[in-house]
């Protein structure tokens, strides 16, 4: 059922996914994304993955609010990146997260046992680490940091 994958290959695939996501953000010219993405791992450590996803959903707002140019577009992009990550084939989450909205992914996480929830949280933190690294290197705007991750 699960494919066996080399750890180096997995890290390379995660790096590639994060690079492509940040490249897209770079082309969109979002100046606030960098500051917001840096905070997401700390939100997860402090509040947990489910609460952080709920926070992102709240901050995403409506399509109308995002079109007005508010910071909600940055959170929408973060939510879309996480949703896309849950849908990637190299992630071993069965199919319960495939083709789901971020809200449905949150509902599935609520049903997870402790061990699975912890594993998924660590996996999401690992992709966020790549996203923060690439955003620091590639994006201009808020969230400047000289500290290594």
Automatic annotation (TrEMBL):
It holds the Pfam family Cas_Cmr5. InterPro entries: AF1862-like_dom_sf (IPR023101), CRISPR-assoc_prot_Cmr5 (IPR010160). Its main location: cytoplasm. One of its GO terms (cellular component) is cytoplasm. The chain crosses the membrane at residues 40-57. It is found in: Cytoplasm. Gene3D superfamilies: AF1862-like domain (1.10.520.30). It comes from the Bacteria. One of its GO terms (biological process) is defense response to virus. Keywords: Antiviral defense, Cytoplasm, Membrane, Transmembrane, Transmembrane helix. The keyword Nucleotide-binding does not apply. NCBIfam families: cas_Cmr5. Belongs to the CRISPR system Cmr5 family. This is CRISPR type III-B/RAMP module-associated protein Cmr5. It comes from Clostridium botulinum (strain 657 / Type Ba4).
